[in-house]
Amino acid sequence: MTVRTAARRLSWPAVGPPVAAVVLALTWQRSLSGAVTAAVAFFLVSAVLAAVHHAEVVAERIGQPYGALVLAVAVTVIEVALIVTIMADGGGKSSALARDTVFAAVMITCNGIVGLSLLLVALRHGEAFFSAEGTGTQLATVTTLAGLSLVLPTFTSSEPGPVFSAPQLAFAALASIALYGLFVATQTVRHREKFLPVTPAGDVIDDLDDPAHRPSPRAARLSLGLLLLALVCVVGLAKGVQPAIEDGLDAADLPRSAVGAAIALLVLLPESIAAVRAAGRDRVQTSLNLAYGSAIASIGLTIPAVAVASIWLAGPLKLGLGDNQLVLLTMTVVVGTLTVTHGRATLQQGGVHLALFCAYLVLAVMP
Asked: Which distant-in-sequence residues (6+ apart) come within 8 Å of 348 by Cβ?
């Protein structure tokens, strides 16, 4: 083995996840001092960067949109575990955590990631080109899932407050998982070509057509394992720094909804970085797949999970959005529809999405 090969194998993406796993094992369920919390935060960011690298390796091997789907599902499944764990520990104080985290995920992905990706490409080329049919399908799915799970509880009358009755929650959970399964089948089997990157002329770019630049199956399997390990570490370490986040929010007299925003921002870091890097390679559709796919997975998998968990969790499960959240969601859907209709976007449209994202951040801390 040459020195160069050994250095490549010992690079941080390779050793980072195991090191982060050791740190997680040493700090799990322990009270952390300020210095230790800072160290945990460092390894958390390192695990995020390693996760992005391995997600890109897996994506290069299996192609799009499968690569975006793998990262979205992996992140969301572990995000769900984090939400349920925190809700179990927090009791009634965390009754709205699932709602706040899922809504934060929708705002981050559908405005933050989408807006930044479009802005970067439009700055360089004047316009960003993508598949209107595939992106429109994803936006429609996000809208339906959000409407069924986050909007309707605000207006139902079977139970007091923004909560579903047990039969209503069961329906929302079943509808969410069914719509998510249907979306996955549409994206990966029936209409895969509608979710692939496109050129300004409308030609589809399929990375599987260029096998010479694809990683080997062994390298892809190794990266998949390290990706899953890195994501477990991201969520576990995020839970470790969560008390420090909550203490900081309490000290700043910020609302509890800001906890959901902070969790979503941390957990979605791998997808955010991967989407921006895809935009840097002019793969706008890949960025949009990551963004909207993450929103779909966040709602489609979180709602059924917390519905089951609510059987043993204390307190009501608050899913209905507040007034300012409803306004932001409505504006996001309207603006998103106008953005994806023609299959291309300008600098202005990217800026509009980012403005909505910034408005969400402001209202999350100053409702």
From this structure: none
β-partners of residue 345 are: 128
**Span 295-313, pLDDT tens digits:** 998 898 889 988 888 887 7
Angstrom distance (rounded) from CA 51 to CA 54: 5
Among the ranges given (2-6, 52-56, 239-243, 264-268), the one the predictor scored with the smallest mean pLDDT? 2-6
* DSSP notation for 81-128: HHHHHHHHHHGGGGTTHHHHHHHHHHHIIIIIIHHHHHHHHHHHHSSE
Count of H-run helices and E-run strands, the chain: 15, 2
What SS3 class is residue 141? helix
Contact 269, 115 (CB under 8 A): no
The pLDDT-based confidence of 2 (bands split at 50, 70, 90) is very low
Instruction: Supply the pTM of this predicted model.
Output: 0.82
Q: Which residues contact 364 (CB under 8 A, 6 or more apart)?
A: 104, 255, 257, 258, 261
For the domain made up of 9-365, give the CATH fold.
A middle domain of Talin 1 (1.20.1420)
Indicate the length of the chain as a whole number: 367
Residue 307 neighbours by CB under 8 Å, 6+ apart? 169, 170, 172, 173, 317
